[in-house]
Write a structure and sequence with these properties.
disordered N terminus, mainly alpha
Amino acid sequence: MTTSHTSPLHGDPEHEARPVAAAPPVDTGVALRPTGFRGSLPWGLVRAVRPRQWVKNVLVLAAPLAAGRIFDPDVLRATLVALVLFCLVSGGIYLVNDVIDAEEDRRHPRKRFRPIAAGIVPRSLALALAAVLFAGAVTTAALLTRPELAWVLGVYVVLQLSYCLWLKQQPVIDLAIVASGFLLRTVAGGVAAGIAISQWFLLVAAFGSLFMVAGKRYSELVVIGDAAATRKTLREYSASYLRFVWSMSAGVTVTVYSLWAFEMGESRDGVPWSTISIAPFVLGLLRHAVDLDRGAAGAPEEVVLKDKVLLTFGCLWLLTMGLGVFLG
């Protein structure tokens, strides 16, 4: 997500440290190219595909985990292949997105340091590498797993490229497209391993994804305040509308998950672990809502890793849900 204007909370010249005796520097909007290895092309390419954001691709494991078959060797192999391939195609999407937004990124206080905006990685090379990643991932999926995974990856690439080129400017549709990226990740693992995906799983994944995306938009709106009018992806939304979307999504997610958990019933040991898992699941959503409401929620993967309490709820949920699935 990019913006051509500086947020009032970032990049204010009055809050930047300057030498006392020197004249205030003139911000040209272009980042100085780092020296040494950090300014080299190989390191720039690594940064450009944003490996820090690949953590969201662990959602590929969701369907095999929910089916209790993640430890089946064939299922695990196919799922790990899908995980790697999603890392490749998402890296390609980041390359294309940064090429398209390079000019705007150069005027942003932080995004101007991205390798393409900073001139470390040439645009032509970034686009060529993205094409190789897309073609390689789809071909590998068809050869090493199932053709259905190739279709999932292809749909993901088409939707995300459409988002980069045009759909990010369309209210509501942009929320759906970003949420679909999370949903397709959750579907990919099941498709790659040939696991039938239940309607409950799809509903939880779909509305859970919408909750995260709408919540992130709301958090951004809270942070930048009046400057939202200058951001193409935010100026069509009000805070009350985004609160409605992520509140509704959270409600549907909790309802559907609870119905699935009650349907699972007691485990072989007589303990209703699936039902118990509702508690940490709901508490995790409520904890995340605290971060959203105060504007402290950035990328979902960063929030989970930084909020220790939320991470604890997540581990408790994973433990109880896992016991319910594997002992069910």
